[in-house]
Every structure is written in C-alpha cells, then in structure tokens.
Design a protein that fits this description.
heterodimer; A: 252 residues; alpha/beta; Rossmann fold; 6-stranded mixed beta sheet; 4-stranded antiparallel beta sheet; 10 helices; globular; B: 326 residues; mainly alpha; ABC transporter involved in vitamin B12 uptake, BtuC; 75% helix
C-alpha cells in the first residue's frame, strides 16, 4: 500500500502540489492521469524519494520514504522517470543487469543472471542485448530502461509515461506485462499515462490529478465516464463500449 | 555469450596489450643518455645503480602517473556527465598549482607531502565549484561544459600565474604546469604510489561509479548513496591530480583521450573498462616520455609538451571519427 497524506510541494515559488491525500492499495495497476502540469510526475518523484518531501507523509509498504534508508527502499520500489537521460555507453544487457544492483551490490549472482535474461526476453531485447544503448532508437532504449526497472524485482513499480516512444506492439506488450505481474505476482504498479484508452483497457483503478490536487479516484469503470473525464480534461468526449470494452473517443 | 562475458576483449587482445605495456616498460629502462645494455647490467655495478636510482623510478613514475591520470579523467567525466572534460584543463590541476603556491608562500620549506596535501585541498575546492557550475549548464549542450571547463581552468591558471609573478615565483609555477620526468630519481617519486592506491580504490568502486554515470535519478532509484559516491569521486580526482602536479607537473590530454578511446571500443561499464583505461594511460605516458627522450637526443623534451602534441592529434582523430561513425 502507498499512503500519501497532506503532501504539498512548492518549487521556485510556485505551488506544484497542494495537500495531496491518496491511498494506492497493494496489488494491481493504478493509472495516474491528468492534463499537463497537473503534478503527476512530481508526485511520483516524491513517492520515489527523488525529491525531498517538503510537507506531509508518504509511506510505501509501511516504510516512510523520507526516513527509510535509500538502499532498503530500492528493494521495495523501482522508479522509471520520464526522461532519465542515461547517456552512458553501456550494452543493453549491462544496463538491465544494473537493475539487480540493490540486491547484490557487487557481482551478479547466477540467479540475478537468470532474472536479467528473462527480462531481456520479456521485452523483446534478446537480439539487442549486446548493442550499446547510445546506438538504439528511442523506443528500443525505452524498452531497455523498462526492462531494467522490472529487473529490480520490487513489489512496487512506479513508471512515468513509459509508453513514450513505444510503437503500438510494444506499448500493448508493456501494458499487458504490467497487467500480468499485477495479477499473478501481486505487484503494485503505479503508472502515469497520457493515453486514456490504455488506462481504460489495463488499469484496475484510475487516479486523476489536476492543478496539483487529486480530483477523482476510483475503479476504472467509475472514472471512464463522459462527465468525469470532461471535468478532468476540460472538454467533452465520447465513451463507448466496443466489443464489451471501454473506448474513449477523445481525438475527434 | 552470456551476460558475464559481454564486452570483454578476447584473450589474445589482452595478451597483446600486456605485452605492449611490458615492452614499453623494459624499453623505458634502456632509453637514455647513458648507454645501457642487458649485459652491462650483470657486469657493471654502475649500470645497475643507474637503473635502480634513475631509470626504474622514472619508468615507475610514468606508469603510475599515466594510469592515475587516465582514471582521474574518467572519474571526472563520470562526475560531470560529460566526455570532454579532464582534470588537467578544467581547473583541477590549476587549483592544485595554486595550492602549492600558497603552501610555498606560507611555509617555504614544506616537505613534498605537505605541498601535496595543500594542493589536494585546493584542487578539491576548485573541482567542486566547477562541478556545481557545470551541473547548471544544459546537458543537451555537451561542448558548452567542455568550453566552460577550459575557461574556468584558464582563469584559475591565470590567477596562479599572476600571484607567482608578483611574488617572483614564476619559475616554480612553470615546473608545476609542465609535466616532466627528467627530475625523477629514487626518493623523489614515491608519493605517486599513493595515486596508484587511489586508482585501485577506484577499481574497487567501479559499479558504483558506473551507476553514478547513469544520472542522479537512476542512481537514487537503485539505492545508491548518490551524494556520497559523488564526494568520493571528487576526492579521487582531486588527490590524484594534486599528487601528479606536485611530483611530475601537469600532463594534458591523457585523462581526455584514453577514456574516450576505451569507451569507443569497450563501452562504459567501468568494471570491465577501468583496467583498460589505467593500462592505456600508462602506455601512452610511457611512450610519450620515451619519445621526449629520443626526439632531441641527447637533450630531453618534457613529457607534457610531447603529450600536448600527441594528445591533441589523438583528440582530433577521435572527434572526427565520432562524426563519421555515429
């Protein structure tokens, strides 16, 4: 469970988050949606202790993120930022392997290697494993970073717009993988998404943010409704059921 | 290939590299004004004394300084997250020279070790300030950081030169600014073993330095003590540079070209590449010192000057090759 209470954030004099209270239950996929500048990425950074907490309290699995040693948190939660800017000239397999660092803090064990190999396979990186990441396309790089995050093997996974740069095949693949680890392994996935249809198709719960506050939160069915979506995004859109699935027509 | 063996040059390549370094080492023992042969080492005690007092210390100094310079360059590039900075030009060496100047002023008869300590302290301050300022520059403009480093190093170097000029110590500054091994004798280079120990320490923390190079967010996400490793890297860069400036003087380009060449071929997983960077730096400095001894035989050209030319050429080749390949 991720518990956020009374969290506010001010950067450079402007308020980014304003008294955010939120509970993300353990297990399953929770999508964080909202317009640009709503504070989604900032909230994720605070949960992942990438930014110091200014006020309020955040716990992940009962561990306070501002007082628990970072190396302990790294075994509980993994974060992938929107643009981590990893510029080092590492091979894909090496990069993914560093996802195991919190566990061994030294050499990869045989078990670590198996996890790395499985992760490479999972994200369709087998053929690329010996390539340097600075020679990859944006989407291939993104997949390598996601694979590294998965490799960390944590119960909580935070992803900030991981579908960026991914083609339809790999975007769907990633979302289905998240869905599966949420179902089968009981992991908790908190994911910032811009494509509301991916949220509608794969998330158990949706949390909507606007202007630095949580404006709606609940089961996917309860949020994917024309009136709720309009209040979040500020324009009317159609919500239809196609072959039994929710589809949001926001681009017409 | 498994994940454990990727990115490692083959055994044959390793053997060739070690043989080359060994050949340079032995060659360096026999190149000099006084003619030496292997037979004279056995028959002539004077020849053996020459080797033990002068040639061997000089060769070891070049070996230690070369590997330490290359590693310091690599660590500095990791800290600055920029491939085009090195301690010799971006203010570390200049701050160290300023530090020795200050120690010389307040305590003219200070032992070499104290001068090195003073130099390390100012180098640490100078490099920390450089990194603080460099981290504010946009990461999308890598050459801006490099240029800023040159200006920054130039300004500190100018301050040191001005001070020295006012105090009539210019000839000393000249000695620290131009790296040279001709004055190295037994008893005059041993501080470099400390630099060698720091290199070993860097090898030991290779994984942490690699993660550091992936950036702040990724480092913290993996549970690395980001600030701690950053400080550790700063100490390595500053101490190594100060020791080399005190004992040998400033040697340019080693910290720049060697890590870049290794990165081109083997990447930047430091666990695998650090030994290559250290060996490459040692080979480059040894070779350039031998060139300096031979080019105007029987006179010597300082190794710093030789590397100014050789290093610049290598760097240009790297820059041009980069555009072609990528």
């Amino acid at each position: 469970m991720i518990e956020i209470s009374g969290v506010s954030l001010t950067l450079g004099g402007s308020g980014i988050l304003n008294d955010v209270n939120l509970t993300v239950p353990k297990g399953g996929v929770t999508a964080l949606v909202g317009p640009n500048g709503a504070g989604k990425s900032s909230l994720l950074s605070l949960i992942a202790r990438l930014q110091p907490l200014q006020s309020g309290r955040i716990t992940v699995d009962g561990l306070a993120v501002d007082t628990t040693p970072s190396r302990e948190l790294a075994k509980v939660m993994a974060i992938l930022r929107q643009d981590p800017g990893v510029a080092s000239r590492l091979r894909v397999a090496e990069l993914v392997g560093f996802g195991r660092f919190p566990h061994h803090r030294g050499r990869l064990t045989a078990q670590d290697r198996e996890i790395v190999a499985a992760s490479l396979e999972q994200f369709d990186l087998g053929d690329l494993s010996l390539r340097f990441i600075d020679t990859l396309s944006g989407g291939q790089r993104q997949r390598a970073l996601v694979a590294m995050t998965f490799c960390q093997g944590t119960d909580y996974i935070l992803l900030d717009e991981p579908l960026n740069n991914l083609d339809m095949f790999h975007a769907r693949n990633l979302m289905r993988t998240l869905r599966r680890i949420g179902d089968e392994h009981g992991k908790t996935v908190l994911i910032v998404l811009h494509d509301i249809n991916h949220a509608a198709a794969h998330a158990d719960r949706i949390v909507a943010m606007k202007d630095g506050a949580v404006v709606a939160s609940g089961d996917t069915e309860a949020i994917i409704r024309p009136d709720v979506l309009e209040s979040i995004f500020g324009f009317p859109m159609l919500v239809e059921r196609v072959a039994g699935r929710l589809a949001v027509l926001h681009h017409t | 290939m498994t994940a454990a063996t990727i990115g490692r040059p083959g055994f044959a390549f390793q053997a060739i590299a070690i043989a080359t370094l060994a050949a340079l080492f032995v060659g360096s023992l026999f190149v000099g004004v006084t003619n030496l042969s292997i037979r004279s080492l056995v028959s002539d005690p004077e020849a053996l004394r020459l080797v033990m007092v002068s040639r061997l210390p000089r060769t070891l100094a070049a070996l230690l300084a070369g590997s330490a310079l290359a590693i310091a360059g690599l660590v500095m590039q990791t800290l600055a997250r920029n491939r085009f900075v090195e301690p010799a030009t971006a203010g570390t060496a200049q701050s160290a020279a300023l530090g020795i100047l200050v120690v010389t002023l307040v305590w003219p008869n200070a032992a070499l070790g104290w001068k090195a300590a003073g130099a390390a302290a100012t180098a640490l301050a100078g490099t920390s300030l450089f990194l603080m300022l460099a981290h504010r520059l946009p990461p999308t403009q890598p050459f801006l950081v490099a240029l800023f480093g040159l200006v920054y190093g130039g300004v500190i170097g100018a301050v040191a030169t001005f001070l020295a000029w006012r105090l009539d110590l210019l000839q000393y500054v000249e000695v620290w600014m131009t790296g040279e091994f001709s004055g190295i004798l037994r008893g005059r280079y041993e501080l470099l073993w400390v630099a060698g120990a720091l290199v070993a320490l860097a090898l030991w923390t290779a994984d942490r330095l690699t993660i550091l190079s992936m950036g702040r967010d990724a480092s913290i996400g993996l549970g690395l003590n980001y600030a701690g490793v950053l400080r550790f890297g700063l100490v390595i860069v500053s101490a190594v540079t100060a020791l080399i400036v005190v004992v040998v003087g400033t040697i340019p380009f080693v910290g720049l070209v060697v890590p870049n060449i290794v990165s081109r071929f083997a990447g930047e997983n430091l666990r695998h590449t650090l030994p290559w960077v250290a060996g490459g730096g040692a080979a480059l400095v040894l070779a350039c010192d031998m060139i300096g001894r031979l080019i105007r035989f029987p006179y010597e050209v300082p190794v710093g000057t030789v590397l100014g030319v050789v290093g610049a050429v290598l760097f240009l080749i790297l820059l041009l090759g980069r555009n072609r390949n990528d």
